[in-house]
Structures are given as C-alpha cells and as structure tokens.
Amino acid sequence: MNPQLFPIVLSFGVATAAMVMVTPIGTGIAWVQARVPHPLRRAVDVLVLLPIVLPPTVIGFLLVVLFGRQGIFGSQLEAILGVRLIFTPWAAVIASTVAALPVMVKAAQPAFEAIPRELEDVGRSLGLSPIAVFFRVSLPAARRGLLAGMVLAFARAMGEFGGTLMFAGNKPGQTNTMPLELFAAYQAGDDARAFLYVAILVGFAVLVAIAAGRLTPKEGT
Amino acid sequence: MSARSFTRGKGFLAAAAIALAFTACKPSASEDAAAPMPETTVAAATSLRNVLPALIARYGVAGKISVTYGASGDLRKQVEGGAPIDLVLFASRKPVEALGEKGLTDGEAVRIATNRLVLIGPANAKPLTFKTLDTIPAGDHLAIGDPGAVPAGDYAKQALQKLGSWDALQDRIVFGGDVAGVLAYARRGEVAGAIVYKTETQGIADIVVLDEASDEYAPTAEVIGAATRGGTSLAGGKAFLVWLATPDAQKILADAGFGPR
C-alpha cells in the first residue's frame, strides 16, 4: 500500500476495532454504575475516569509493564499462546481502547440514569426478565446517549498518541497511525506530509463534533 | 439546591488556587529579569544528556547555562520556530546545515566530537552482529531511531543500506523517537537488538554490546555545534562552543566514550 495512505487506513481500522471493544464494555459498566447499587461504585467511577486524567505516558508505561514481552501478562501470553502484542496493530487497539473507554462510559451512564425508573418497572411488571428489560427498554431509551458515546469514543481512539507510541511503537507499515506519522513528519521537518494528516484529523474532528452535538439530548427535552 | 451551591464553592476554590499559583510565580520572574548575566540556552541532542552536565559543571563560567534535550530534528524545528536558543549541539551535520541555510546560525559549524554505532541487545540476547542482522526471526525486532529525525537512526539506516540488509529488515524494524527510546526498548527486552551510540552503553547493566560498527559500512557519527541567533546570549553560546574544543572539555568527552573531534 502507498506509504502515505497506510496511516489513514490504519487509524480508521484501529479506531473501529477499539470502538467494537469499547461499546459493549463501556455500555455494561455504565449500566451497572447507573442502576445496580454496589459497594465499589465510587471506586469504579474513579477508575473509569483515570485514563482521561492521567498523562498518556502513564498509560503507555503501564501497558508496556503489563503487556510487554517481559510484562506480567505479556510474558504469559507469549509463553502460553505464543502471542506478542507489543509493536503490533493490536497494541495500538489496546492503547486506544483504554483511552476511549472513559469517553463511552461518561456518555452512556447519564443516558441510563435519565431513563425514568417507572419505564423499567412497567417492563418488569409485564413479566420481562431483567435481561429483556435491559435490551427492550433501557437500551432503546438510552440509544442517543450511547450513539454519542460511540462517536466520541471512536474519535478519541483515533486521536490516541502517547500510549500508542510507547506500547505499539512506530513501526512503519504496522503501527504508524496518523498521529504518530504526523509527529514523525514534524520531527523530520516534512511539513507537507504533516499537513496532510493535520487536514484529515481536523476535518474528521469537525464531523465528530457535529454528529455528537446532534445526538446529545438538548437540555430541557 | 445545596448540591449546586456546593459545586459553585468548589469552582471558586479551584479558581482561587490557580490564581494563587500564578501570583506565587511572579516574584521569581522579576528576580530573573534583575539578574545581570543573561542565561545561555543550549539545545542538545539526546545523546549528549549524560555528558553535558559534567561539561557545564567544569566550564563554570559566570552566568548560567541551561539545556533542552531532544532529537536533533525536533530541536532544529524548534529553533526554526523561534525558540530562544544560543547554541545547538546536534548529533549530525545535516540539521545544523539546515539552520545555516536559513541564516539562523552565527559563525562556523564546529565538530566537537565523534561517536560510534554499536549493536546492543537485552542482557539475555542471542549472539548477533551487524552483518547477521537479517537472521533476526520474524516477529522479533531491531530498534533504531527514526531516520527522519534521529541522527543515530539515520546513521544506522546508512550502515544497513551499505550492508544490503535494509530492505530485507523492513518488517522487523521499529523506530524510536530518540536514542533514549531505542535504548529503553533494548533494556526492557522488547527487541532482539538495537542500534545506538557507543556512548549510550556506558554503565548500563541490563544490556550487552553485541557488535561494534566498522568504518567499512558505518558513516562517522559526528557531534556538531553552532551558535544560533534566536537566543538572548549569542556571546555566551559562542564562548561555550569555543571552550568545548579545548583539551579540558575534550578529556571529559573522551571519558564519556566519545571519539576525538
């Protein structure tokens, strides 16, 4: 593939894979946090927020320490399954997933909390199982918030840089996503190449902002 | 209602804290302005980070020298962008010449020292030489600096091209953002080998030097300095550059593993 085109395709691929991981996990966490009273509620709230608050280098460091070839899990993965994550596109997917998960949860949780409990109670009184209530009542009612969360999570995954650079590395043709390629182009003084990715990333961000704005419920409605 | 006023209270506290932080900064800023001797600011290649503090300590001339480290290509862009730098010390002639072409340097570019490429591996590395790099198995990696920005990576690329293994190694090469990043990959055992400067390996326990590059295929790695106009103390930058060529400074560079200039 054309070396200038590859980072674009890779970035969309990595962001899509990250969104596929983040959507069910994020929706699950958000629903539990919104509807199930449990003793770890505050702890989970804090934990979910961490990737937004922490410097990306902390995330990258922890990913390498945990999933690198000498890492606690990384060494086991390699010994048992023969899988190496570091310097692969999957490492970029994992870094992006960690970065995007809080965005999904923070959009989905208020959407679930905003559903009138009576709605779910009616479902239950009509004989629906808790799982059926979730899929037939809660999920449809929260769909706008969930979609907004997915769009924002996709965008956040696309913008992942620090964790990706440390954990996935810059391996041309494998892990050089648009943000990495932009940084490499900047370092090399190749402004024309840098502007190409700047233009794409800015254009995409504008689309995301418009989409998220339309999906987020207006105040008072 | 009480919840809302509580949030407002928090916001006010945060604003107060930020305001306090700014006020606290002010006195030190005015002190700097009152200092008689302007500070000399040096932009230096990451590969000099272990030796430059010793050089500056030995230099010990009135007026302070502060240093910003980075990949030479990165620093070059910062100087072009107007960063207030009095002296650049880069790991290659190219970025210095690029600044010269834009009229940003003052006076001649000076070769301060030379360096040598070595092939290193993690402590438990299998034997490997520059000439057998293409035996690195698929799925394993060789780390080098990004040739576009990191001179060590550019030198490594030239050596691999001359050895004829550059193309074959494409699927096994991972780029580091500077020499320190490349070294970190080797220290953590994430790669089979890494190409860095000889000066990076001194006193580091968790790596082994597998091979030293020969002049047959490896270009001479140079450390090049030039005074730049963008800073506040051009004279300070020039004086330090002149001193770096003296026997005193050269002795410190040699002790750190650098070659003669």
Question: What key attributes describe this structure?
Answer:
heterodimer, A: 221 residues, mainly alpha, MetI-like fold, 11 helices, 76% helix, 0% strand, globular, B: 261 residues, alpha/beta, D-Maltodextrin-Binding Protein, domain 2, 3 domains, 5-stranded mixed sheet, 9 helices, elongated, disordered N terminus
Question: What features would you describe in this structure?
Answer:
The complex is a heterodimer of chains A (221) and B (261). With 221 residues, chain A is an all-alpha fold. Chain A has a single domain, classed as MetI-like fold. Chain A has 11 helices and no strands. The N and C termini of chain A lie far apart (48 Å). The mean pLDDT of chain A is 91. Chain B is an alpha/beta fold. Chain B folds into 3 domains: 32 residues; 109 residues, D-Maltodextrin-Binding Protein, domain 2; 96 residues, 3-Layer(aba) Sandwich (D-Maltodextrin-Binding Protein, domain 2). Helix content of chain B is 40%, strand content 23%. Chain B has 9 helices and 10 strands. Chain B has a 5-stranded mixed sheet, with helices on both faces. In chain B, helix 2 runs antiparallel to helix 9 and helix 3 runs parallel beside helix 4. Chain B is elongated and about 55 Å long. In chain B, 42% of the residues are buried. Classes of the chains: A mainly alpha (221), B alpha/beta (261). The interface between A and B is medium-sized, with 23 and 25 residues.
**CATH architecture type of chain A:** Orthogonal Bundle
* Strand arrangement in the largest pleated sheet of chain B: 2-1-3-10-4
The quaternary organization reads as: heterodimer
H/E series of chain A: HHHHHHHHHHH
| Major β-sheet profile of chain A | none
CATH class of the largest domain in chain B: Alpha Beta
Whole-number tally of structural domains of chain B: 3
Largest interface: A-B, 23 and 25 residues
Radius of gyration of chain A: 20 Å
On the 0 to 100 scale, the average pLDDT of chain B is: 86
Low-confidence stretches of chain A: none
| Number of extended strands of chain B | 10
**Biggest beta sheet summary of chain B:** 5 strands, mixed
Annotated CATH homologous superfamily of the largest domain in chain B: Periplasmic binding protein-like II
Rg of chain B = 22 Å
Q: State the distance separating the first and last CA atoms of chain B.
A: 73 Å
Strand residue percentage of chain B: 15-25%
Give the overall silhouette of chain B: elongated
The CATH architecture of the largest domain in chain B is 3-Layer(aba) Sandwich
Strand % of chain A is: under 5%
Structure class of chain B:
alpha/beta
